Amino acid sequence: GCELTASTKSYTFQVDEKDDSDHILALSVVCLMDGAKDECNVVEVVGRNHENQEIAVPVANLKLSCQPLLSLDNFKLQPPVTFRLAAGSGPVHLAGWHRITHREDAFFEEDDDDLSEEDEEEEKELAPIMPAKK
């Protein structure tokens, strides 16, 4: 997690580019912390699109009197990503998880020609799908 305040308006999550792993960052909850004023606190996610252009997308607009917390249901992001307090003074806390998937050097592919006798028998036993009767 991280915390955004009037003095710390942004936080960047990045991974080592030399790392040969896949990284997924998922944002679960954005909430106002103790000491927040009753003002609009807008949190943006800044990342890159498919054309490698920087884009900023607001993901939360929190106000102490009406919506102090927002569940983002594990909103998945591809690092590097920056969280920015675009409006308000916070403090706003962001929580989530980081998953690392290590790539394997060899990829395994199945070849349809290598079906065992049991697989061939199972394929023969399946009945075709018949159209519904009207």
From TrEMBL:
| Transmembrane helix keyword on record | no
**Keyword set, alphabetical order:** Nucleus
The segment annotated Disordered runs over: 109-134
**Per the record, where are the segments of Acidic residues compositional bias?**
109-124
User: Is Oxidoreductase one of the keywords?
Assistant: no
UniProt domain Nucleoplasmin core: residue ranges: 1-99
Q: Provide one Gene Ontology biological process annotation.
A: chromatin remodeling
Write out the annotated subcellular location.
Nucleus
One GO cellular component term of this record is: cytoplasm
Per the record, the major location class is nucleus
The entry lists its GO molecular-function terms as: chromatin binding; histone binding; RNA binding
Protein family membership: Belongs to the nucleoplasmin family.
By what name is this protein known? NPM3 protein
Organism, by scientific name, is Rynchops niger
Which taxonomic lineage does the organism of this UniProt entry have?
Eukaryota, Metazoa, Chordata, Craniata, Vertebrata
Q: Which gene encodes it?
A: Npm3
